[in-house]
Specification:
The chain has 217 residues and is mainly α. It has nine helices and two strands. The chain has a two-stranded antiparallel ribbon.
């Protein structure tokens, strides 16, 4: 058994990222670094390291003399994030299925089971398990850079997934699509995998466009 030791800044990064994804930090006010550091019981050094990393991930922006702000959700970001996912993820998922060893296939099943168990819980937990499931489908094989790119896009997608799942019925549809995708992935059916991933992402993007346009109106 291996033990992964995370630095303090990595732990702070995870906590703050979770708050951004869950919508618990406002987008119209700077991040209150003094208050946040005191609440988390850390100095400003690991907090600043975490905030800088979150800016690199695209979840925060910085303004001179004003500090860090949460990047607002927008229809333009939905288009960019999901366009990139559509360009990369269908083929990456299909290629990973061909390369997957038995332990990779076991991890994919376990990721789906965790997502399935989370379905009746908080949307933030569902979104996190959704990210882990999609990541498990692209990691096998030797295309490490591709997997890293997809995983970064999954992080950026996470709070949009929460927004997408709020309307009634969306969770059931997503569950059905994920199950079909897993079955095709385990069968190593390249054509079906590419088609299912593309349909899944296109459907989510279309729903989100409508939601965000209505919110803006």
């Amino acid at each position: 058994m291996s033990i992964v030791v995370r630095t303090l800044s990595e732990q702070v990064f995870e906590v703050v990222r979770e708050r951004i994804v869950a919508g618990r930090l406002p987008t119209d006010q700077p991040v209150r670094q003094d208050a946040l550091a005191a609440e988390l019981g850390v100095s400003k050094i690991p907090l600043r390291e975490a905030l800088a990393r979150l800016e690199q991930e695209g979840l925060l922006t910085s303004q001179a003399n004003r500090g860090y702000f949460v990047q607002p959700m927008s229809a333009a970001d939905v288009d960019e994030i999901y366009d990139l996912r559509l360009r990369i993820e269908p083929q990456a998922t299909a290629a990973a299925a061909q390369a997957a060893a038995e332990e990779d296939r076991s991890r994919a099943r376990q990721a789906f089971e965790r997502l399935d168990r989370a379905a009746t819980g908080q949307l933030a937990e569902v979104a996190r398990r959704n990210r882990e499931f999609h990541a498990a489908l692209v990691r096998p094989g030797t295309r490490a850079l591709t997997a890293q790119l997809v995983e970064r896009l999954l992080i950026l997608s996470e709070r949009y997934v929460i927004a997408h799942l709020k309307p009634a019925g969306r969770g059931s549809r997503a569950h059905r699509e994920h199950r079909e995708l897993l079955e095709a992935w385990l069968a190593r059916d390249r054509s079906a995998i590419e088609q299912l991933v593309a349909q899944h992402l296109q459907g989510t993007r279309g729903d989100l466009r409508g939601q965000l346009a209505a919110a803006d109106a």
